Amino acid sequence: MAHSRGSDRSHDPTAYPPFAVSADLVVLTVRDDELCALVVRRGEEPYAGRLALPGGFVREGEDLREAAVRELAEETGLTPGDVHLEQLATYGAPGRDPRMRVVTVAHLALAPDLPTPAAGSDAAEAEWRPVDELLVDGLAFDHATLLRDGVERARGKLEYTPLGAAFCRPEFTVAELRRVYEIVWGTRLDPRNFHRKVTRTEGFLEPAGSTTTRDGGRPAQLFRRGRVELLYPPILRRAPQS
After folding, report:
1. Which pTM value belongs to this model?
2. Alpha-carbon distance 106 to 221, whole Å?
3. 45 and 80 together in one domain
4. Among 94, 107, 109, 186, which one is most buried in terms of CB atoms within 10 A?
């Protein structure tokens, strides 16, 4: 079959405008009973002095996940073994970066009470800020959209995966896990109902074989995250409508 001129042109790289690819990170953790995100204060234009999500351009010969892992290490000192890391979404609206056409592949990272971050090479400082505060005050570029999407992904995945345990230390109590759900979902949960659901969901939790009094009161049983990847039945934010 003969190729048309249009198909020949489609293989000519010079026929298209150049664009850059970046990797941005929505890094979420629970600190002081609030859902917080990692942000940096930009030290360079554009948006010098504004808060933004951490990230950077993908280097030549670098895989997208490799770029995200590198940025995570540069900003937090963490590796994928320390956090839950997954690709979130791709954002490529024209004009999202005033410098040039930039397509970013955002990644979502979740971990328990992360350390104070260190700013990268193009940031004046790095810090944790409550998500609600950031969504009100705004972020540079289109990062408020990335953050909003990352939070909603985390909220949704708590319903049908054991991802809530990613916000907990390796061994945790049901009360500590319930508090994660309450903070991420922004709602209060009935303690007895929650305890019944998570302990009866096969494969979600595994007894650690010890107890703790760090919550105060009587000793509470410690658990670890189980092996299951999907929760059945799911733990829904709200009861289904009848």
Report:
1. 0.87
2. 37
3. yes
4. 109
